[in-house]
Design brief:
TIM Barrel, two-stranded parallel ribbon, eight-stranded parallel sheet, 253 residues, alpha/beta
């Protein structure tokens, strides 16, 4: 298994992040070999990010973009296997009916999946708290009513929605495009090993089933971190904690 780290930990309130070189250094120093969620919106930005990642010896596992069309094309150019997207929010329904919105959402994703297929990119849908693809019934509807959509399993979001991550992986392992390894305690996202998710059991399941793709470790940025005088040191402390946990399990070298 290969481990990447998500740049969301460094997101500010109104901006995604500032010093990308420093962020990449922190990720590499913690023992990760890939980065994901990197924001790329134009060709100039693409060249800059790819150059920095190459210099640091890091693989770009996934990107985000303000334009999904560009996001898919840039993913193809870089060699990313998937492009992540998520469902519409439950409190902003288009039809006023959750099930009807779910049908529309899945149809939209299926069209995006067909388009992405032309570029050799998988559309990975991320079931997420407070979105209309959140619980097991909704995930099953998504998978059973699509052919060109893949699944991004997030251990924390699925656990918090009463979905067993291990069972979900085993059920859809042939259509899992990516993993977000994440922990949660109650509704609070916490560093790996500090929450209720059986992280090591999940990793063991991936190993037993010969999962060879990237595992993206993620820890959401918290607004309260920005109250600290040195925001980056707070993030660095957490990524070191996560790295230490994974090294103790024997999965991160």
């Amino acid at each position: 298994m290969k481990f990447s780290f998500h740049t969301i930990s460094w997101a500010l309130i109104r901006f995604q992040y500032l010093d990308i070189e420093k962020i990449f250094d922190m990720i590499k120093d913690a023992g990760f070999t890939g980065v994901e969620g990197v924001n790329i919106n134009d060709e100039k930005n693409l060249i800059e990010i790819v150059s920095i990642a190459k210099e640091k010896g890091l693989s770009i596992v996934s990107i985000s973009s303000s334009d999904i069309n560009n996001g898919i094309k840039f993913s193809s150019v870089i060699g990313c296997e998937f492009y992540q997207t998520g469902g519409w929010y439950r409190d902003k329904l288009i039809t006023g009916n959750l099930k009807e919105d779910l049908k529309l959402c899945v149809n939209e994703f299926e069209e995006i999946g067909k388009y992405a297929k032309k570029y050799g990119v998988k559309i990975a849908v991320h079931p997420h708290l407070n979105q209309i693809i959140e619980n097991l019934e909704e995930i099953e509807f998504l998978m059973e009513n699509s052919e060109n959509i893949y699944l991004l399993i997030d251990t924390a979001h699925q656990f918090a929605a009463n979905v067993n991550p291990v069972e979900l992986f085993l059920k859809y392992k042939e259509r899992v495009a990516h993993i977000h390894l994440k922990d949660v305690r109650g509704k609070e996202f916490v560093p790996l090993g500090e929450g209720e998710v059986e992280i090591e059991k999940f990793l063991d399941t991936l190993k037993e089933n010969e999962y060879r793709n990237w595992v993206g470790v993620e820890l959401d940025r918290k607004i309260e971190w920005l109250k600290e005088k040195n925001f980056l040191s707070t993030v660095e402390k957490n990524i070191k904690k996560i790295s230490s946990f994974l090294k103790k399990t024997g999965y991160l070298k």
